[in-house]
Amino acid sequence: MALADAVGALGVDLAACLLAFPVALFPMVNEVRFGGDPRITGAFLSALAVGGLLAALFSGAVTGIRRSGAVQLTAALSWGLAVAGFGLAGHLGAALVCLLVAGAADSISVIVRAALVQAETPDAYRGRVSSTELVAGIAGPELGNVRGGLVASLTSAPVALVTGGLAAAAVIGVIGARNRPLRDYRAPG
Hints:
Blueprint: H1 3-20, H2 26-34, H3 38-57, H4 59-63, H5 68-88, H6 92-120, H7 126-154, H8 157-178, H9 180-183
InterPro entries: MFS_dom, MFS_trans_sf, TM_effector
Keywords: Cell membrane, Membrane, Transmembrane, Transmembrane helix, Transport
Pfam families: MFS_3
């Protein structure tokens, strides 16, 4: 894997997390749109998790696709658009479907990125690359929650979700357009 591939793969994941992580905004969206019932906030969290779990159950089929870079880009782009859709959703059913899609897209993106990076990283660098992935996986969502909260405090939770989701999709689109090695990456085998 060329350096551009690795940087692009990690950049896609960071853009998705930093710009569109929605969890901190769930209580605010619930209050504004759905009356503040704590069970609805729990349903938001569960929908995201169920989508991720369903995608993980079928991850073998996804990781078997040779065009791993394109799969990661598509999944991350879908995450951003699903988060934006959640921000626009006025009906509870639509909001939950958006979160199911977002959870599935996130799992696919992370699974494919991890497989891609691990398959192509030379043994001498595997520990450092794994450490970078771990830090990005922990810090990215938390910093994304901070970003979401800051934007929501200046505007509203739905605006923070829509702008964050669309910004993530745009950045991921730029990475995909500019990083041909990632976009065209084919898994070995």
